[in-house]
Design goal:
The protein is 31% helix and 18% strand. It is an alpha/beta fold. It has two domains: 62-144 and 306-375, D-Maltodextrin-Binding Protein, domain 2, CATH 3.40.190.10; 147-304, Periplasmic binding protein-like II (D-Maltodextrin-Binding Protein, domain 2), CATH 3.40.190. A six-stranded mixed beta sheet has the order 2-1-3-14-4-15, sandwiched between helices. Helix 5 links the parallel strand 6 and strand 7. The longest helix is centred in the N-terminal third of the chain and has 20 residues, at 3-22. The chain is globular. 38% of the residues are buried.
C-alpha cells in the first residue's frame, strides 16, 4: 500500500469516528403512559357557592313595614324620609312598604324572619310575638304619653249619651287588626252588653271619622290623643291619669272653645281658641274643617300601650343595634317631624325602649275574645 493511500484511509476512519461522536445520543425507550380509567376522570366541576348578600346591603335591603292606619301616600313619603336618614347614618339600605292590612303586615314579618322591621300597634305585636317570635324594640311617645286610647265618636247633635244607646246602630271602624280602631272598642261594647247592627270596615282612622261626618255610619271608633292647651302642653298629664284625676269631660277641649274650632292658616293643625285637637278628627280637618263641631267623643277607653317598632325573629343583632342607635338620633332632628313624627303620619313625638311584658295587657284582651290572626 502506498503511503498516500494509507494516509487517505486513516483520514476516512478518523472522520467517521468524529461524525459518530457528534451525532444524537440514543435515549432509552420510554414506556407508554398508563391510561386513566374513565371512571376516575371528573365529568363536571361543582359550581362555587355564591354567598347570600348581607342583610342591609343594596342587593338585600331591609324591609320597613308600616300598617295602613292613615293615608298610604303620607306613610310612604314620610317612611322614605326616615329610610334616607337611616341610610345616611348607617350605610344600610331600606325598602319602605305599606301592606294592605294589619294582618298582612304580621304575615310579612313572619314570612321574612331575617330582614324585616315594622311599626305595628300593640295588637299586631301581641299576635306577631306569639305567632313567630317577633321582638319589640321601641314604643312611641306622644307628647309625653307612653300610651294612647280608643275613642267612640258620635254626631254632636245626636241623642246618644251612653254606650247602651249604640245598640243596633251602624259601626264604622278602620281595620279589625287595629287595637284602638276595633279591638279595644269591641271589648268595651261587649262589656256594656251592646250588640251593634251593621259593621262597616272603612280602611283607616281617618276614613272612619269621615264616614261618620258624612252620615255613612252611626258611630265610629278611632284613636284618641290628649289635646294640647294654648301653651302646647297636654290638658292633663300621664301622672294625673294614673292618679285617677281625669274625668270624662276632660277628654275634649273646653266646651266654650268648640264653636271656634278650625284649621290654622296653612291647614297644618286644628285649633279651638288656641287648644289643639290631636285625635283622629284632626286628621280630616282639610275635608271637614268643622269636624269638632260635628262630631263629639262619647267615650274613651282605658290606656293602651303605645304602638311599637319591632323586628322579625331572626333579624341580625348587630344590624339591629345600628338601626336602633340611628333611630334615637333621628328622633332628635327636625326631620323627624316631617316623617313618623308628623301628625298626619303616626304622630310619634319620640320613642323609648319597650319590653315584651308591657304588652301582656293586650294579650289578655286577645285571649279574652279569642282573637287570632285568621280572624283579621
Amino acid at each position: 500500500m502506498s503511503k498516500k493511500l494509507f494516509t487517505l484511509l486513516a483520514l476516512l476512519v478518523i472522520g467517521s469516528l468524529l461524525l459518530a461522536a457528534c451525532g444524537p445520543t440514543a435515549t432509552p425507550t420510554e414506556e407508554p403512559a398508563t391510561a386513566v380509567p374513565a371512571t376516575d376522570v371528573p365529568t363536571e366541576v361543582p359550581p362555587t357557592e355564591v354567598p347570600e348578600p348581607a342583610v342591609g346591603s343594596e342587593e338585600h335591603p331591609i324591609k320597613v313595614l308600616f300598617v295602613p292606619s292613615v293615608d298610604a301616600n303620607v306613610i310612604v313619603t314620610g317612611g322614605e324620609l326616615m329610610a334616607a336618614a337611616l341610610n345616611e347614618a348607617t350605610g344600610l339600605f331600606f325598602e319602605v312598604s305599606v301592606p294592605t292590612s294589619y294582618a298582612a303586615t304580621i304575615e310579612e314579618m313572619c314570612a321574612s324572619p331575617t330582614d324585616t322591621m315594622a311599626f305595628i300597634p300593640g295588637l299586631g305585636y301581641a299576635l306577631a310575638s306569639q305567632l313567630c317570635g317577633v321582638d319589640v324594640s321601641f314604643k312611641a311617645i306622644r307628647f309625653g304619653f307612653p300610651a294612647y286610647w280608643a275613642q267612640i265618636l258620635v254626631p254632636r247633635d245626636s241623642d246618644i249619651d251612653e254606650l247602651s244607646d249604640l245598640e243596633g246602630l251602624k259601626w264604622g271602624y278602620g281595620d279589625v287588626g287595629s287595637t284602638s280602631g276595633y279591638m279595644v272598642p269591641l271589648v268595651m261594647l261587649q262589656e256594656a252588653g251592646v250588640t251593634v247592627g251593621e259593621e262597616v270596615q272603612t280602611g283607616g282612622h281617618n276614613q272612619s271619622a269621615l264616614a261618620l261626618y258624612n252620615g255613612e255610619v252611626d258611630f265610629a271608633t278611632t284613636f284618641y290623643s290628649v289635646p294640647l292647651d294654648p301653651n302646647g302642653e297636654p290638658v292633663w298629664t300621664w301622672e294625673e291619669y294614673l292618679a285617677g284625676e281625669v274625668t270624662a269631660d276632660m277628654y275634649e277641649v273646653p266646651a266654650e272653645t268648640i264653636e271656634n274650632c278650625a284649621p290654622n292658616e296653612d291647614a297644618s293643625r286644628l285649633f279651638c281658641d288656641g287648644y289643639r285637637v290631636l285625635d283622629a278628627r284632626a286628621n280630616i280637618r282639610a275635608e271637614a274643617p268643622d269636624v269638632v263641631q260635628a262630631l263629639r267623643i262619647l267615650a274613651v277607653s282605658p290606656a293602651i300601650p303605645n304602638d311599637t317598632l319591632s323586628f322579625s325573629p331572626e333579624f341580625p343583632a348587630d344590624v339591629r343595634a345600628q338601626i336602633e342607635a340611628a333611630l334615637l338620633a333621628f328622633a332628635e332632628t327636625d326631620a323627624w317631624d316631617t316623617s313618623i313624627g308628623s301628625q298626619d303620619f303616626y304622630g310619634w313625638t319620640g320613642l323609648v325602649p319597650a319590653t315584651d311584658a308591657e304588652y301582656d295587657f293586650v294579650r289578655a284582651m286577645v285571649n279574652a275574645i279569642g282573637l287570632s290572626l285568621e280572624d283579621l
